[in-house]
Task: inverse folding
């Protein structure tokens, strides 16, 4: 496990680490065996910067539920698009 | 995961490292293949360090593609591995069964095909919301709706209870293809809500922390300000009650009468003994 992710996991699950003072947090990060860029990302608490360094996805989708089932409702955007295309072809 | 179990959907909780249950972690580690739908790219990297074969479900999403189709493809991707005899684990952020279509659907599909499948709960965004905002849903009651569904259907709103609207960043999306809706749609939502709440009613935009170095978003604003407030897929709107609970006097009178009858019956029984 990478040192950065291991550190985050420890922060997540350890009551003492999750409640570190700013000084304790800085000391804990500086004690990590990670490069300056990773230290900077952690100290600035910047998830985007951290993700860029770790090579994670640039974009995450997190919608897991639709407003209604696909057999509900009077129509969806696809039908609307089709109707628009038909109107255009008629005109 | 037992050797005979084909599929389990587990929740990772909301915050990396903080919320995953020992049993969920064990299911991930003992699976043959893990499918992942998580809320933060760093969480996905963390999951990849728990198992050598973690397959992200992110590629099934695409702007302009119906999310109904996305969810069907997620289910099919997992079912292909279940049918091939592998022990499959679906790892979802939060609770796999709360505001999540694919985990319920894949479990139902697996069972219908004769496979053993079950769900392990996780700590959901709703759970974090109660803790971070200091809300007890039992105090006044609490209604939850997906924001678009709330707009599409007539609901009975009780303004003396909390109202929580999920996925408010895509409120009003009838196409299920967008990942943000314009302020004009939110204006309609505000209009709908003003049937029950004043425009200056304080509401809260909430987003749970996904990393231990982050803090949750807990932004208070007037309902009227919702239209021009930046919202994302993970944004949730909380409307505290705007009215005191109304006592149901007729029901209270009936309960009182019942108490009186039962008490007199028990007194009579005691007297006759």
Result:
């Amino acid at each position: 496990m990478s040192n950065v992710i291991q550190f985050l996991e420890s922060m997540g699950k350890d009551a003492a680490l999750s409640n570190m003072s700013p000084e304790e947090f800085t000391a804990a990060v500086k004690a990590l065996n990670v490069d300056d860029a990773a230290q900077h990302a952690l100290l600035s608490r910047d998830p985007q910067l951290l993700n860029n360094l770790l090579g994670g996805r640039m974009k995450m989708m997190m919608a897991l539920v639709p407003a209604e089932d696909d057999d509900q409702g009077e129509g969806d955007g696809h039908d609307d698009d089709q109707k628009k295309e038909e109107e255009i072809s008629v005109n | 995961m037992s050797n005979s179990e084909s599929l389990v959907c587990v929740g990772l909780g909301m915050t990396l490292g903080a919320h995953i249950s020992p049993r969920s972690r064990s299911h991930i580690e003992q699976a043959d293949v893990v499918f992942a739908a998580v809320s933060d790219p760093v969480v996905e990297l963390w999951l990849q360090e728990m198992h050598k074969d973690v397959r992200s479900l992110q590629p099934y999403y695409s702007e302009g593609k119906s999310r109904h189709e996305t969810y069907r493809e997620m289910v099919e991707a997992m079912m292909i591995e279940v049918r091939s005899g592998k022990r499959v684990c679906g790892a979802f952020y939060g609770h796999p069964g709360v505001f999540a279509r694919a985990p319920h659907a894949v479990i139902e599909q697996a069972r219908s095909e004769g496979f053993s499948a079950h769900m392990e709960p996780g700590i959901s965004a709703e759970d974090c919301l109660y803790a971070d905002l200091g809300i007890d849903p039992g105090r006044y009651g609490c209604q939850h709706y997906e924001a678009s569904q709330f707009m599409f259907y007539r609901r009975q709103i009780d303004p003396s209870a909390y109202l929580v609207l999920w996925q408010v960043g895509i409120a009003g999306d009838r196409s299920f293809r967008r990942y943000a809706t314009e302020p004009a749609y939110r204006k309609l939502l505000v209009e709908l809500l003003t049937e029950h709440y004043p425009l200056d009613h304080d509401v809260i935009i909430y987003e749970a922390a996904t990393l231990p170095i982050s803090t949750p978003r807990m932004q208070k604003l007037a309902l009227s300000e919702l239209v021009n407030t930046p919202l994302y897929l993970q944004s949730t709107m909380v409307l505290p009650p705007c009215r005191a609970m109304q006592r149901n006097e007729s029901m209270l009178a009936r309960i009182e009468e019942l108490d009186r009858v039962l008490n007199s019956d028990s007194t009579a029984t005691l007297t006759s003994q």
Remarks:
- The first helix of chain B runs from residue 22 to 30.
- Chain B touches chain A through 50 residues (CB under 8 Å).
- Chain B has nine helices and ten strands.
